[in-house]
Design a protein that fits this description.
By secondary structure, the protein is an alpha/beta fold. It has one domain: Rossmann fold (3-Layer(aba) Sandwich). Helices cover 39% and strands 15% of the residues. A seven-stranded parallel β-sheet has the order 3-2-1-4-5-6-7, sandwiched between helices. α1 links the parallel β1 and β2. α2 packs parallel to α3 and α3 packs parallel to α4. The chain is globular and about 50 Å long.
Length: 249
């Protein structure tokens, strides 16, 4: 193995699974962290690169679970660790007047609390090892755009927090050689996207995207992997939309 060792949360499906595949294509090794790894989304046993994947089940909102899974992966690769791409998250939609505090807390715990837990654990291990590295967090255009068709106050608030967290870590850890950047996907064709189930709402969404289509998980993964790579060595604190132009339309 000549590549880096990168932890990916949410690697079992969607954008996370696309990131795992792309990292393997580049020759990197992956610590694949998720609650579940559906067979249809993950690398088949015996496929090229499969020997460079360490899969572990964990809950990103449970710091002890996440720390144990990450450390097991680092140990598997003999102490090597170079960075994190944090993709894990949930999307629960509901009018704000119907949202109870338990639901709000669950979304914040997983999306924002999980981002902090994953980033802080990764950063602390890089700092302890005295080596540079990169952290890529995944937010959403929901951090910047309200949505009446599919309201989700908790999701929007959590993803806004991810943007602020990424900027703060970029400032705190930049002098240690640890870069932190945030990717902001728009409407991406993954299992999490539910707007396509409602034709009128879906037509409205497409009309708001200058490119006139949904994005793919692979297109988001390309940006995540680039930001975490040495090729982006002077990129720190960036917030990069991958949204077909939706935020500027």
């Amino acid at each position: 193995m000549t590549g880096r060792v990168i932890a990916v949360t949410g690697g079992g499906s969607g954008i996370g699974a696309a990131v795992v595949r792309l990292l393997l294509d580049r020759g990197d090794a992956v610590i694949d962290l998720d609650l579940a790894h559906p067979r249809e989304e993950t690398l088949a046993e015996g496929a090229p690169g499969a020997e460079r994947v360490h899969r572990a089940r964990c809950d990103v909102s449970d710091v002890e679970s996440l720390a144990a899974a990450l450390d097991a992966g680092i140990a598997r690769f003999e102490g090597r660790f170079d960075g994190l791409v944090h993709c894990a998250g949930i999307y629960l939609k509901s009018p704000t007047e119907d949202v109870d505090l338990g639901t709000w807390n669950r979304v914040l715990d997983i999306n924002l609390g999980g981002s902090f837990a994953a980033a802080s654990l990764a950063g602390n291990r890089l700092i302890a090892a005295g080596r540079p590295g990169s952290i890529v967090l995944v937010s959403s255009t929901a951090a910047f755009l309200g949505d009446r068709a599919e309201p989700s106050a908790g999701y929007a608030a959590s993803k806004g927090g991810v943007v602020s967290l990424g900027r703060q870590l970029a400032v705190e850890w930049g002098h240690r050689g640890i870069r932190t950047n945030v990717v902001v996907p728009g409407v991406i064709d993954t299992p999490m996207t539910t707007v396509i189930e409602h034709p009128e709402a879906f037509a409205h969404v497409l009309a708001s995207i200058p490119l006139g289509r949904l994005g793919s998980a692979d297109e988001v993964a390309q940006v995540c992997v680039f930001l975490g790579s040495p090729e982006a060595g002077f990129v720190n604190g960036a917030v990069v939309p991958v949204d077909g132009g939706q935020l500027v339309s």
